[in-house]
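ENCODED BACKBONE
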Amino acid sequence: MLISVIGGGAPSARAYELAEAVGRELAQRGAVVVCGGLGGVMEAACRGAKSAGGVTIGMMPGDDPRAANPWVDYPVMTGMGYARNVIVVKTGRAAIAVDGAYGTLSEIAHALGDGTPVIGLETWELASGDGYPLEITRADSPTDAVEKAIAAAHERDARERAAAH
C-alpha cells in the first residue's frame, strides 16, 4: 500500500520528529512512503521509513535525482516544480499531512478534491466554504495517523471495488 506523507520543507523540530515517527510506523505496517522527495517533513518521513526497513518514493520537482534526500529509494523526476504536488497525493491511497506551509495546503486541497483521504497531524485548520465538506481526519499521534490512513485507504479501495462492479 502506498501512503503519501506531505508537509513543510522547513518544519519545527517537533514536526520533524512526528514525520519521522509516521514514516517508521508506515514501514512497520508494510506501507510504502510517497513524498515530494526533498527535505523537512519529506526527509523525516523517508528517514523513519528506512530506519524500519521500509521503501520510499520521492516525486521530485526537478530533473536531478541527486536533489533527493538521502532516504529516497526511488526518485521520480517530474520536472514539474510545485505541480508535482498533484502526483504526490494521487499516488498514495491516503495522505498524512504533518505541519506544512502553502505547498502542503495545495496538496491537501488536491487530495480532498480528488477523494483521497487526508489525515492531519498538527497541520492546517480549514473552514468549509460554500458547502464543500472538509474531510481532514485529525490524528493525535503518529501511530493514530498511520492507523487512520491505512484504514481510510482500505475503505477507499473497497468503495472503488464496489463501484466497479
